[in-house]
Amino acid sequence: MEYFVQQLINGITLGSIYGLIAIGYTMVYGIIGMINFAHGDIFMVGAFTALIAFLVLVAVGITAVPLALFLVLLIAMALTALYGWTVERIAYRPLRHSFRLAPLISAIGMSIVLQNYVQVAQGARVKPLPPLVHGGYTLLEGHDFAVRLSNIQIIVVVTTLVLMLGFSFLVARTRLGRNMRACEQDLKMAALVGVDVDRTISTTFVLGAALAAVAGLMFLLYYGVIDFFIGFLAGVKAFTAAVLGGIGSLPGAMIGGILIGLIETLWSAYFSIEYKDVAAFSILIIALIFLPTGIFGRPEVEKV
Amino acid sequence: MKEAAIAALIAFGLFVLLIGFRTDPGPTGALVLSTRFGVLAAVVAAVFLGALARALVLQQFAGPIERMVPVSLKAALSRMAPYATAAFIAFAIFVPIIFYNNRYLLDLGIVTATYAMLGFGLNIVVGLAGLLNLGYAAFYAIGAYSYALIALTFGLSFWICLPLGGVLAALTGVFLGFPVLRLRGDYLAIVTLGFGEIIRLVLLNWQNLTGGPNGISGIPRPSFFGLPFNATDHGFAATFGLAYSPTHRVVFLYYLILALALLTSWVTLRLRRLPIGRAWEALREDEIACRALGIDTTTTKLTAFAIGAMFGGFAGAFFATRQGFISPESFTFTESAFVLAIVVLGGMGSQLGVAVAAAVMLGGFEFFREFEQYRMLVFGAAMVAVMIYRPRGLIATRKPSVFLREQKIVPAAIVGEARTGTPA
User: Fold this and answer.
1) What pLDDT, in 10s, does the model give residues A134-162?
2) Which CATH number is correct for B87-417, 3.40.50, 1.10.287, 1.10.760, 1.10.3470?
3) A35·B391 Cβ contact <8 A
4) Is residue A301 part of a domain?
5) Across the interface, do B388 and A101 touch by the CB < 8 Å criterion?
6) Which residues sit opposite B227 in a β-bridge?
7) Would you state the pLDDT for residue B409?
8) Residue B10 needs a FRET pair 20 to 30 A away by CA distance; which of B80, B95, B279, B373 works?
């Protein structure tokens, strides 16, 4: 029982990180109907940016952990958002009227570029970071097993929740959010009624990348080690989360993320850790075949 | 000028942390930070000059890149295409004779032909039927592992195992394709990616059967219709009264894979003229119209998938017999992406394009050996650039397979317009 509760906590933490990445997929897919295959690598770039920003801050003498973390968060979000913007501008915008598979192939190319760029610039070896946030609480005391909730887990979940709420507010209540929803329904129509479509799409990429940067920082803090390849697996799992929750839906992305996190953790805990990625990929395939609209998605109407 | 400055500023923002600083594990295991502002300045300056040059060039030639090539040159090139194909095949056939003593080049030729064959196989799926397959390495892996396991367990010869490898890969293709092929294009791509990874992970973890990360070694080498390539009295050299030389086997392997690749290409070209091939191309252009015309889309997709998988399986069996050793390392997503890059750069649907792309990319691999770490970077960038500037591939023009009297070239611009709408 205690073991189960512990896995539940771990799964929700992991799922929050997936959920943050999934938002980037779900928004982009909702608006321009393409899978931003490079998004997982944007997440990886975010994690690297956060790592280097932290080391630079330490080098210039800012060592108070809360302040440093806050600054790192801002820097990583800003710079990663710039990556999101650039990727859209270079690789996707010129293809908006190309044939169906062109943006996806271009995105795969971009994903290869980002991965190898980081590998060349920072080396292929894993980057460890000593744990910055210590401590935690013991929730339940079993006879041989204690359920622990660490501070870092609290930070991850709370940050995710705050960002989710802020983001939902942005989409539901602001002018930008209204533009985004208009573009999601019909790009041409939105342009006709005066929405700057290009700018809205750019903003979507920027926001998605900023959230991915937060996820990158959380991943770095939670696991304490990153390499240039983390974006691939995390990207596929987050995409699975987006599909599972219903692509285009924000709460869907979050719930999908947590589901994937839970499934992965429980699978590793009770079945076999070697096959945990197989479990994630199988869920992706099963979800796409049997539940292509997800939990919160709308059925897609195919038009000629 | 102003745009170039903005581009440089953005580049500075992009690269300041990731290029300006470098982290390396220090003596204590903690990361040590070092600065590289020189490299950063160089990269930013390059972006600035690049943006400036681009603006100048665009001022000179207002209009798309396509128009910068004179029409007469294009016409001459398209007239040369059949000769180029013949010349290319002739060159490929004479390679072992010209470079008989250059073992290194022969090996390179074998690898190139393997990738060309993979490219042809994937081209059936991606280029003809328009189904993006991101897990092609899985079929390659199934071909290789079936060959290795059947040959080792039952002691069957290469010529029996090769078709078996292909058939098993094709069956896997059908097995996978059956449930997923009604998905839309990009969902299908992601499912094939997931499938490719599952196969790789199973190969990695099913220790009893596949040897896990250690792979399978001691895979039997191919024989010349029963004559082994060794120095014994019953070997190939002794039977034909030649002095034994290890090069015989390399040359034989080279011709074997060349024949397989040409077979793949020939089958593809013939299939394109059959009703099924036409159905594939129609499916690529417009699935809804296809359904309206009464084409069974599921069967059509399934055949494309299975035939593509079969050739992948053949290539895999060849790979296993050439290497004598296989492990899951050889069948990662990078491998699928690499084959896809060959198809995309060569031009989806173009046979000559794929062959040239395979030769250029693998030749480039070797030529720029000292810049090895940059090569995937360049390929990724090339994929993006090709999609933007020449979505039909670098040397491809789309020719209709079926035509009345006169063969018309369909310009990429018209083809592109077929799908302007974004999905609702």
Assistant:
1) 777 777 777 777 788 888 888 899 999 99
2) 1.10.3470
3) no
4) no
5) no
6) B224
7) 54
8) B373
* CATH number of the structural domain spanning residue A165: 1.10.3470
Residue A303 lies in a domain: no
- Contacts of B140 by beta carbon, 8 Å cutoff, 6+ apart: B118, B169, B312, B313, B315, B316, B319, B331, B335
Q: Rounded distance, CA A237 to CA A22, Å?
A: 8
Q: Which of A48, A232, A239 lies nearest to residue B190, judging by beta carbons?
A: A239
Select the residue from B384, B398, B417 to test the A interface by mutation, using most A Cβ atoms within 10 A.
B384
- The rounded distance, in Å, linking the Cα atoms of B253 and B318 is 9
pLDDT at B415 over 60: no
Say yes or no for a CB contact (<8 Å) between B380 and A116: yes
Into how many domains does chain A fold? 1
CA dihedral A165, A259, A257, B333 (to 10 degrees): 180
Q: Does the residue A77 lie in any domain?
A: yes
Other C-beta atoms closer than 10 Å to the C-beta of A59 total 12
Domain range for residue A276?
2-290
Sign, Cα dihedral of B87, B88, B90, B94? positive
Q: Give chain B positions within 8 Å (CB) of A285.
A: 180, 191, 194-195, 198
Structure ipTM: 0.83
Please name the member of A48, A90, A108 whose beta carbon is closest to the beta carbon of B337.
A108
Nearest C-alpha of chain A: how many angstroms from B24?
8
Q: Say whether A83 and B418 touch across the interface (CB within 8 A).
A: no
DSSP H helix total and E strand total for chain B: 17, 4
Mutating which of A278, A283, A286, A303 best tests the B interface, going by the most B Cβ atoms within 10 A? A278
Chain A, nearest residue to B419 by Cα: A99
Residues on chain B touching A114 (C-beta within 8 angstroms): 380
Tokens 């990269």 belong to residue: B43
What is the distance between the alpha carbons of residues B413 and B63, in angstroms, rounded to a whole number?
A: 13
